[in-house]
Specification:
Number of domains: 1
Structural class: alpha+beta
Largest sheet: 3 strands, antiparallel
Distance between the termini: 52 Å
Strand content: 5-15%
Radius of gyration: 21 Å
Number of strands: 9
Order of helices and strands: HHEEHEEHHHHEEEEHE
């Protein structure tokens, strides 16, 4: 081994020790859960139209990765987060958990590439560049590092996939039957709900005291309390209040006239749209939701290249 290679190996081992000292091992999905893609959940727009279900923000049921039977899904309103689609939140949280599981497996096996699909036929490819000293670490250390950084990457991939879904629907992608989803693409609650899902999903995986479903149930309740939970009556009234300004349409079909295009690329946060003059809220300060990034994997010396290959016309 030459001197430069030896120096890189020593430097990497020192870096690993420093990073691992402050890490907390994640608690992943079970093998049965991690081998099956998350369940489908039908979302809705926050306007009071056919099929939209409003919920009290402090009563959304228990999270249920496998079947969803314990959940209450629909639209809530919070003073500091605006309208939130609980379905979107749960979906992206679950994809965060699923993709973290897949990423961990790939890293443990030292795979150079892995692929996956999400909501639509698009194929996602992730190319992994390992740090120079990776092969010199013990299997136990590699497994610990893989577990730590795969949570960050799972959240990043899940959230990026949700943004790609909004882009596709903007261009007319039909996820269900013949009904185009352009009308709801980048509606005012989508990006914030998705970002919140990736944020809470990553936190749930790092909860060492609860399994994933228990952690998500607890975290959703705590987050909604932080945001100022409102009743379903307030959520519906807030949806009606922006008719004609944020959307047009009636009972069967609506079209967004304002699109929420903040995906966090500029400042690392998604800022929610708060409905003006909601009496129950006063003048709240919006809670900016952080979007996932790859800083932690990069601290360990990893590089990831994520490519999406469309399969749609």
């Amino acid at each position: 081994m030459g001197r430069p290679q030896r120096a890189r190996r020593v430097w990497f081992c020192v870096l690993v020790i420093g990073c691992a000292a402050g890490s907390s091992q994640a608690r992943f999905l079970s093998r049965r859960e991690g081998k099956k893609t998350p369940q489908a959940r039908i979302a809705c727009v926050p306007s009071p139209t056919m099929g939209v279900r409003y919920l009290d923000a402090d009563d959304v049921g228990r999270h249920d990765y496998r079947s969803g039977r314990k959940e209450s899904n629909g639209i809530v309103y919070t003073c500091r987060g605006g309208h939130i689609d609980v379905t979107h939140l749960r979906k992206i949280a679950d994809w965060t958990a699923y993709l973290a599981y897949q990423t961990r497996d790939a890293l443990i096996q030292s795979d150079r590439v892995f692929k996956f699909k999400m909501f639509e036929p698009s194929q996602h490819y992730v190319q992994i560049t390992y740090p120079p000293g990776w092969k010199y670490l013990s299997p136990a250390t590699r497994r610990e590092i893989a577990g730590e950084i795969s949570v960050s990457l799972g959240a990043y991939l899940a959230y990026t996939g949700s943004v790609w879904h909004e882009i596709l629907t903007w261009h007319g992608f039909k996820g269900i039957g013949f009904y185009p989803e352009y009308n709801s693409a980048f509606s005012w609650e989508d990006n914030y709900s998705n970002a919140l899902g990736s944020y809470l999903g990553a936190q749930a995986l790092r909860d060492r005291d609860h399994d994933y479903d228990q952690a998500m149930t607890r975290l959703i309740a705590e987050q909604f309390q932080r945001l100022g939970p409102q009743s379903k009556a307030t959520a519906k009234a807030a949806g009606l209040a922006v008719k004609g300004s944020w959307y047009v349409g009636a009972f069967v079909r609506v079209t967004m006239t304002k699109r929420h295009l903040d995906v966090g690329l500029e400042d690392g946060f998604v800022t929610p749209w708060l409905v003006p003059d909601v009496a129950q809220c006063g003048t709240p300060e919006p809670w900016l939701c952080p979007v996932p990034d790859l800083r932690l994997p990069e601290e360990y010396g990893f590089r990831f290249h994520h490519e999406i290959r469309p399969k749609q016309w």
